[in-house]
Structures are given as structure tokens and as C-alpha cells.
Design goal:
By secondary structure, the protein is of the alpha/beta class. The chain has 14 helices and nine strands. The strands form two sheets. Strands 2-1-3-4-5-9 form a six-stranded parallel β-sheet, with helices on both faces. Strands 7-6-8 form a three-stranded parallel β-sheet. Mean pLDDT is about 90; it is low at about 1-25.
Length: about 400
């Protein structure tokens, strides 16, 4: 009897199974290993020419326009001390309160150094026309530099252009605008989403059922974070998104949405990817529904989420997270403002932070003993880690240390 056909079939079958196994392994490996992304196509050439690699790293997948800065040769109309304007769109949450407190602290320190004379604060209570008028009033009163959290990426362009023509730099915080005459200090939301999704995929070994909880659909911030998450999950055929829920960046709204989903759908859930400060809302929903605790990402660490992670680490709870830190972000905006006023020559219009990855191993670097699961404040990164000066130097033609 000739066994060769059977042997050939067996070899072909074994080879096919080997190829299938290799393909499955490759898909799983792609899911749980970081995949390099690209710089924005419309600004890649500028960024590669102007910035060193460690500064370019913050721009992967970045969604706002980046141009050469008109402040590269800027000199202030007069010498120090300078008056700073803070043009805020609203003050109604812990994030905004932490940002303002940091600015007041930085201004106090620089008053003692003789660099800052005064801080002028406005708040438009969410009304963009009012915010425009408040910035125009600052220009007319002759402030020297303005830090703003604009309520619109486009509506403020005209008044920011007015400030530019008056020789007043405007630095936006976490809310970039589209005029080329602004300086936008930002955290890359796309990378927040990508970083958390990769971390969750690794915790789940590339397989399982998850819920995703986005912020406010349609807003640029929510869309960017969502796109970053999808860039990872598309490479994870064994991770199934059971439902994409809307949490409005609110703990209570997220709790309601997740609880409703869990109450009406018995599908086992292995993890939750949420993109903002909704961690405790998701945790409470899991508890109310009687579901086992699973990894829940920390989209922006509130003190209560850091306390929960710390308190439950000994029971095996693990999570991953990232951050758009308010105080650290404001401190960076202030440092950028002072460097521009000192004539250090900003090269590009946007200063963009590559957000950190928070893991079970690094969570205690963010946690503080006074944090509890009832705390209402926002967590901040370890001192000196939010775009250190060694990276910020790369954005300027004549970098120099700021006075201490």
C-alpha cells in the first residue's frame, strides 16, 4: 500500500494548522504590543525638521493643526515684571479648580522673583461671547500675556488674532484653537486612548468581552480618545466590545449607563475601557449589579480612583490609566508663557504632552495617603515628570532654564 498520499495530506494539514496558529499568534501579539503610529500628515515635515525625537513623540496621531510659530522671534514690548491674564471659560469642576490653584501658586512664586506683577482672572461661565469680550478687555487693559481655556476651537480665533497684533501671546490649555497666532499647550488625547487600550489588552491577554464608556460624543476630545482606543482594539480579534456607552465624563452618568447595560444584558464582562474621570461610576455600577470586579481603565485619575486602586491592590485588583493633568498642565502652560516672554523663540504652534501610562506598579507614585474613595480632587503626576524641561527645551530656538 502506498502511504505517500496520506503522508502528503498530513504534511499539508500540519502545515496549514501551523500557518493558522502562526497567524493567530501574530494577531494576538499585535494586539498586546505597542504598534508605532505616524505623525499627522499635514505637519509631519515641520515637526521632523523643527523638533528633536523626544518632542516629536507627543504628536503621534495628534488631531489639531500644527504650524510654525509666529513667536519664534518674539520680544515683549517691555521688560519684566509682566501682568498675566487668565481667561477661563468656566470654573465648575475639580479639574478647573486644580488648574487655577496651580496658576495662582506659580504666579506667587514669580512675583517674589520680580518676573510677574499681577494676575487678572476672568470666568465666562460657559458663555463664549462673554469669554471673547473678557479677552478683548484684557487686551485693552494691556496685560502682557494671556493663558486661556477657550470654550470653542474656532470662535475665539478673532480675538486671539487681536491679541497677537497687540503683541500679547495667548497660550491655550487643553483646548487648542485653530488660528496660527495662538500657542496651544495640549495633552494628546489620541495617545491617552491608545495607551489605555493597549494596557487593558495586555491585562486581558488579548481576549475577553469589554464595555467602552466615552465622554461627550461629537466633541473633539472624546473623538480623539476614542480613535486612539480603536487603533488598538482593531488589532484584537479576540476582544469583543459588547457595548459602547456614553458617560458624559460624569461619574453619575457613567454609573447609570453601565448599570443599565449590566442589568439588561447578562453577558460576562472582562474589562471596561472608560476615557475620562468616570472610574468610580463604573466601579459602583459593577458593584450594584453584583458583577465581579474587573479591570477598569482610569482615563484621568481622580483622587478617589487612585484611592480605590491603592486600597484594593492587595486583593489583586489591577488597572491601567493615563492622564490629562490639570495642575501639571497649567504649570507647563505657565513655563511656556515665561519662556516666550523671555524671548526663547518658540518653534511650533503646539506644545503637546505624550501622556503617561499608569499601571499597578506606578499607581502609588500618583496616590497620596490623604486620598480616600470619597475624595473629590484630581490626581497629579509625580513632580517633574510632566514634560520635563529637558523635553521642553527642544521646542525653543534659544532654550534656557527658568529662574527658580
Amino acid at each position: 500500500m502506498d502511504f505517500r498520499p496520506s503522508i502528503v495530506k498530513a504534511v499539508v494539514l500540519a502545515g496549514g494548522l501551523s500557518l493558522l496558529a502562526g497567524a493567530a499568534w501574530a494577531q494576538s501579539d499585535t494586539c498586546t504590543t505597542s504598534q508605532p503610529g505616524a505623525l499627522p500628515a499635514d505637519s509631519a515635515a515641520l515637526l521632523q525638521k523643527a523638533l528633536p525625537p523626544e518632542a516629536q513623540a507627543g504628536f503621534e496621531g495628534y488631531g489639531s493643526p500644527v504650524v510654525a510659530s509666529p513667536y519664534v522671534d518674539f520680544k515683549p514690548p517691555h521688560e519684566k515684571p509682566w501682568v498675566i491674564g487668565y481667561n477661563n471659560s468656566f470654573s465648575g469642576n475639580a479639574w478647573r479648580a486644580a488648574a487655577l490653584a496651580e496658576l495662582q501658586k506659580d504666579v506667587g512664586a514669580y512675583k517674589k522673583l520680580g518676573l510677574v506683577k499681577d494676575l487678572v482672572i476672568t470666568d465666562s461661565n460657559g458663555d463664549t461671547p462673554t469669554q471673547i469680550q473678557q479677552m478683548r478687555s484684557m487686551i485693552q487693559k494691556g496685560v502682557d500675556v494671556i493663558i486661556s481655556i477657550p470654550g470653542s476651537p474656532t470662535a475665539m480665533n478673532g480675538v486671539i488674532d487681536e491679541a497677537y497684533r497687540a503683541g500679547i501671546p495667548v497660550i491655550t490649555l487643553a483646548a487648542p484653537v485653530t488660528t496660527p497666532n495662538a500657542i496651544n499647550e495640549d495633552t494628546n488625547g489620541y495617545l491617552i486612548g491608545k495607551t489605555m487600550a493597549l494596557g487593558l489588552a495586555q491585562l486581558l491577554d488579548g481576549k475577553g468581552n469589554i464595555l467602552t464608556v466615552e465622554g461627550i460624543p461629537g466633541t473633539s476630545g472624546s473623538q480623539l480618545i476614542q480613535a486612539g482606543g480603536q487603533a488598538v482594539f482593531k488589532n484584537c480579534p479576540d476582544i469583543r466590545v459588547v457595548a459602547d456607552l456614553v458617560g458624559q465624563w460624569s461619574e453619575s452618568a457613567a454609573q447609570t449607563a453601565v448599570l443599565q447595560q449590566l442589568s439588561t444584558n447578562p453577558t460576562k464582562i472582562d474589562g471596561v475601557w472608560q476615557q475620562g474621570s468616570m472610574f468610580m461610576g463604573v466601579v459602583k455600577a459593577l458593584q450594584q449589579a453584583g458583577r465581579p470586579m474587573v479591570p477598569v481603565t482610569v482615563g484621568n485619575p481622580n483622587q478617589n480612583s487612585l484611592a480605590y486602586g491603592h486600597d484594593n491592590a492587595s486583593q489583586g485588583f489591577k488597572t491601567v490609566g493615563s492622564s490629562n493633568a490639570p495642575a501639571a498642565g497649567m504649570n507647563l502652560a505657565f513655563r511656556v508663557a515665561m519662556r516666550v516672554m523671555m524671548g526663547q523663540g518658540l518653534k511650533v504652534s503646539n506644545v503637546v504632552v505624550r501622556p503617561p501610562l499608569i499601571t499597578a506598579d506606578t499607581l502609588d507614585q500618583w496616590w497620596k495617603p490623604e486620598f480616600t474613595q470619597d475624595s473629590t480632587g484630581v490626581g497629579e503626576p509625580p513632580a517633574g515628570t510632566w514634560m520635563p524641561d529637558s523635553v521642553l527645551d527642544g521646542y525653543f530656538t534659544h532654550p534656557a532654564p527658568l529662574p527658580q
